Amino acid sequence: MNWGTKLVIGMVCFMTMIIVYAVLMMRSDKDALVDNDYYEKGINYNLEYRKKSHVREDRAAPKVELRNDSLVVTFARAASGQLRMIRTADKRLDQQYEISTDTARVFKVPVLQKARGLWKVQLDWTSMGRPYLYEKEVMLP
């Protein structure tokens, strides 16, 4: 077999690979890296940025820590809002909790039954009429 034949075989194999990848890409239903509501998130980005800056300005970052079988969130002031636990590896495991703290300013989430690994904790709350947004990654053992 001479070099010309080998060159043609190599080019045919490469073109076949590209065509197979293109067909597989077109058949996939959706891209896992793109949110379904990306347009709304883009519009609301300024609101999220403002909420995050309120946390810095007011030094209101909550303390998020693992204690025994619970994720304990301690706020600087009484708060009400939402806590989202986002599993980056599997969207089906995402959970949302309603936050309402009393004078102790503590909110607990049981984590014993949750999957081990990296979770993103997103806190969206209001305290004294001012909105806040805080995110932290937590590793569950």
TrEMBL record:
Keywords: Membrane, Transmembrane, Transmembrane helix. InterPro entries: FixH. The chain crosses the membrane at residues 6-24. It comes from the Bacteria. This is Nitrogen fixation protein FixH. The lineage of its organism: Bacteria, Pseudomonadati, Bacteroidota, Sphingobacteriia, Sphingobacteriales.
